[in-house]
Amino acid sequence: MDPRTPCLIGAAQRTVRRQPGPEPLDLWEETARAAAGAARLPVARLDSIQIVHTDSWQYDSPTGRLAERLGATPRHHAYSKVSGTAPHLLIGEAASRIAAGELDSALVAGAEALATRRAYRQAGERVPWSHAATPKPPYGWERPPHPAELAHELFLPVHTYAIMETARRAALGLSLEQEMLDRGRMMASMTEVAAANPHAWRRTPRTPEELVTGNRFVGWPYTRNTVAVLEVDQAAAVILASTELADRLGVPHDRRVYLRGWAYAEDTWEVAARPALGSSRAIARAATSAFARAGLGLDDMDALDLYSCFAIALRQACDAIGLDPLDRRGLTVTGGLPYAGGPASDYVLHSTATMAARLLARPGHGLVTGVGMHLTKHAYAVWSTEPGGTLGDGEPVFRAEPVPIVAAYAGPAVVAGYTVAHDRDGAPRKGLLVVDLPAGGRAYAQVTRQELMADAESRELVGQPIEVVTDGEVNVASW
């Protein structure tokens, strides 16, 4: 074996339930030390420190502060942008640098303390955390929302993902009731996995009925218990090293996990620009490329963790790779973002750490996927206890061609996908539509009349002819 072959030799996770809990810097340090301990690697010896963007707090120098805590002087460091694929990209870059001989070890860490932030907010107290960035930097978007999305208040994932869900439902000819029943069945099994995961945030098994009918809507047809739970205090870290260093450290061969191959692909950044709202060619290309690089296929996978912020992320992935949502292997090793916890951009570190433990306990191969932005970014990684394959890199293997968006539109249109935003008291607040235009292209529109929102939630609205008026910024639909 090439002595530069990268392998994962240490991982750690932490879930903090007391409130208020520690700040992200404390969590980074704790999981970094634990992962390095598992890897038999002195933390001061780290060649690279890479951190996933945290929503909880903006530090003046995230990697610098962690290095200071660890007593390390890494020759490489990185702090990611906001994205559920960020852990994949950091791990992939670290593996590539190790394979090229530029590094011999790397830490990738992430932490969120959003539950603690909420606790301070509810107590009317300021968060007393250290080393705040001054001035506060802009939010870590790779690309801000489209002006038309901002004008129509359509930038929250709970609404954009729901729009894609309704488009898929209509394309398959499913009834509203069947979609909800299928979603409940798919996600109830995930709650069972979370119940057995000591790191999971929610550890209560739920029936399909409890998940889809027993709690309030957030972005219809999604209920609160079927979407990612962001306000968690969780952290994870992994250590990668060259095979040569792992040998020197005395890490047994049966305690190493290899990144066999991975790939990254992009859909459009704006939801209305998606060629098909309910499906994704980008997912298929990312999966095909990752499996080809790994020299393995879906049937070879002994365990799976598909990114599960919303049901449509799972469903589009299953559709694209030919996987039954009720596959005997399950869709997650953690319980998924709605139950194990969805710590902002950090979840894939948890799924990777859990997958590594799973494969070390039962040698074989596992698939870990990530999703970023509004089902825009897709990363697929194949891990294995057997070395081999070709790593790949972060260059997109596919980019979808966007459908034109018309910002201000008046006239006839047809509903392509929709949702109804709900307030915290459960009351419907506003309908949000993506509509097909007669001359081509798409537009966004709002629904403001209560009777039309009620109608939209009572039947299939996709395909409904509508009339749109505009004030030049906001389009309003009626029928």
Overview of this structure, please?
The structure is a single chain. The chain has about 475 residues and is of the alpha+beta class. Helix content is about 30%, strand content about 25%. The strands form 3 sheets. Strands 5, 6, 13, 14, 15, 16 and 17 form a 7-stranded antiparallel β-sheet that branches. A 5-stranded mixed β-sheet has the order 1-7-4-2-3, with helices on both faces. Strands 9-10-11-8-12 form a 5-stranded mixed β-sheet, sandwiched between helices. Helix 1 (about 25-40) crosses helix 2 (about 60-70) and helix 10 (about 280-295) packs across helix 11. The N and C termini lie far apart (about 65 Å).
Distance between the termini: 66 Å
Q: How many DSSP E strands?
A: 17
Secondary-structure-based class equals alpha+beta
What characterizes the major β-sheet? 7 strands, antiparallel
Order of helices and strands: EHEHEHEHHHHHEEEHEHEHHEEEEEEHEE
The whole-angstrom Rg is 22 Å
On the 0 to 100 scale, the average pLDDT is 97
Percentage of β-strand residues: 15-25%
- Helix content bin: 25-40%
Which shape, going by the Cα principal axes?
Answer: globular
Continuous helix count:
13
User: Can you tell me the residue ranges where pLDDT is under 50 for at least 5 consecutive residues?
Assistant: none
